[in-house]
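Archive entry: two folds, one per protein. Generate the first.
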Amino acid sequence: MNYYGFDEIVEGMEESFTVKVTHEMMEAFLGITGDVNPLHTDVSFAKEKGYDSCVVYGMLTASFLSTLAGVYLPGKNSLIHSVETKFVKPVFEGDVLTVSGKVTEKRELFSAFVVKVEIRNQNNEKVLRGNMQIGVMKDGE
């Protein structure tokens, strides 16, 4: 886990990590959300709609942005203010995703910064893009 303070954050700073999407993740997400949409749970239905298999929940994919902020950029003192995403391509079980963010702006007044985010699959295809505004709490807050 990183421990960047607000003063250590600079425009252009980047962090990334990889994660493999598993069937267990899909089951856990279903259990938490109750989203039984057959596009995510029924292979036959997904194939009828033109996909090779069930499509991973978009919000499961986007949830890795929480890890980006809470573990990597800035890490321990992260406080996500907002997340704006666009789902560009579908994700499937077994995909290996690279989640990355680059600081594009610092906002001194609120001890916050803006991160351009993207997630790419193992074929380097962009599956998600967006922006996050992240605050940095001071130790002890």
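Generate the second and append.
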Amino acid sequence: MKKTGSLLLMLMLLSISSILAQNKSSLGIKIGMHSTKLSVPLEGEDTDYLSGVHVGAFYSMEFGKCRLQPGLIYVRRGGSKTVQNVAAIVTTQKIEQRSKLNYVEIPLELSYKIVEFEKCNIRLSAEPYLGFALSGKFKSGDEETMIKIGEENGAINGDLRDKNYGVRVGASLQFGMFEPYAGYDIGLGDVIYGPSVAYSNGLYFGLALHL
């Protein structure tokens, strides 16, 4: 039994080594823009889109036409909306409210090469991710307050949950070390505490550099 177990372990290690030897791997960095909004489907409300940034690093492993790409990325999310100024009831004065939410995310991109040319190729990708909240700010007019993380104390604007998750779907065009990409970010986790459920969705685009 011991010999059989040792043999199976050796075969597994050889198989893993063979797969890793056949793959084309590289480290890289990516930087781009996120344009997100906060959706509250139960109340039928969405905020307007708010521009943010994302920047991070990844490790890319290619297996034929398939690619596996884990990474670590900073993302700024949020949303904005214009509301009636409650301090000016007798007027039509309105103010802008903005929520800026900062996360560090761990994505795992799974992509497939659908078209291959001599010097470039086109890929479709799906990228599930898990995010951890770093900080949040809520600005109403000229007043700005910090959003507490991981607490539920009945705040008017709701407190920020410490975790978020979702999936990004998109496409990219790779030529050499450069790979511009774009897609849609689908938030699947409620980002705030409170009676409402809010999801962070939006567009993203950027450039990946394979080093």
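Annotation attached to the second fold: The first helix runs from residue 2 to 22. The two ends are 46 Å apart (CA to CA).
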